[in-house]
Specification:
Number of helices: 15
Organism: Actinoplanes ianthinogenes
Protein name: biotin carboxylase
Distance between the termini: 53 Å
Strand content: 25-35%
Enzyme class: ligase
EC number: 6.3.4.14
Radius of gyration: 21 Å
Helix content: 25-40%
InterPro entries: ATP-grasp, BC-like_N, Biotin_carboxylase_complex, Biotin_carboxylation_dom, Biotin_COase_C, CPAse_ATP-bd, PreATP-grasp_dom_sf, Rudment_hybrid_motif
Length: 444
Amino acid sequence: MIESLLVANRGEIARRIIRTANRLGIRTIAVYSEADADLPFVAEADEAVCIGPANPAQSYRNADAILAAAKERKAQAIHPGYGFLSENATFARTVASSGLVWIGPGADAITAMGDKINARNLMAAAGVPVAPGTAEPVAGVDAAIAAAETIGYPVMVKAAAGGGGMGMGVAADEDALRTELGKVQAFAERMFGDGSVLLERFFPRVRHVEVQILGLADGRVVALSERECSVQRRNQKLVEEAPSPAVGPELRERILAAAVKAGEAVGYRNAGTVECLLDPATGEFFFLEMNTRLQVEHPITELIHGIDLVELQLRIASGEDVTLKPETAGHAIELRINAEDPKRFLPGPGKITTWVEPEGARVDSGYTAGNTVTPFYDSLLAKLIVFGADRQDALAKARAAVAGFAIAGPKNNLPFFAELLENEEFLSGDYDTAIVSRMRKGVK
């Protein structure tokens, strides 16, 4: 096992990783921006290094500064968390070539899955179902129109280098395609430095289901279980639950087998997630993307399996054999508590004057009372996670946890979750990715 770990991230995920590392007796080194100096993760690490100003490009995305901190504090390994540099193949390769242990998949797997077109083609070749779409970037408007006619409207216009629900648009006809193509290309060029775009069939009613995989040190790929991620706003997740209420034993067997194929196709090591779209009417599922990192919603998998995924990540990266619990028990739900208004989901930073966490729930938080939520980073305040004997029990615990969580200062979306947990569609388990849009129809 490694003896020292630099955590190249911030907030709740930095605290989460530090917590497990400290339990395992691993010396932890936090890196932080000037804006984050007072956050809990800085104090909870054994050591902390300021790596730059608030701008992520000058701090959390500054590979040179992070590597310099690792060298200065004699870290043996780097855990990137999620976001920032976690899926940057160049950074992963540099970490490894510097003699440090990278807690994640190899750079080749990150590269292979980072381009959505390449990933689609690899998965199709491996026998993983993919939705009808283009096998290479569309070369312009005319090519896009021709491809859409073959695929059939409506189509999803996607940035080839995108991820995290960013760089997407839906076109129901040719006029809309012309508009969305230009918008997505411009966004992709600005955000990812790559304006390449692909088209896929858009399913008006679809569920977002993903599978947690682990690539073990001995080369095997194991699929643990699936998570339901269909409660989304602007293609970004708000709620996850495990197991999915839409997945029965036969479908579970098929989707887990496909996830293993996906991991094997790229020689995957460490933790990753295979994301799929599920047509609830037919039971068909299609590969969406692979997240080559620890997922935000990993706690619900931990609870139903009784495992610690960060510990498993560290052991796999150290070359150790790991003991898994493939069987599941109970039901877990995660709510992403964000600093945003609960109606339109617009960011609402500010100083936290009240922070009282509920009893009987797991809270993975990045803040506490007295901290200031700045506008420089993602709006995630905390992840509120409950575990019950079954879905009904978990729902009841989620209601109690939301009611018992008190936050004042910045805007937050706790009122939205109180509303969702009384929504008949959500309670039935028969919902899809448009549920939030239906709940917010007409809201101004």
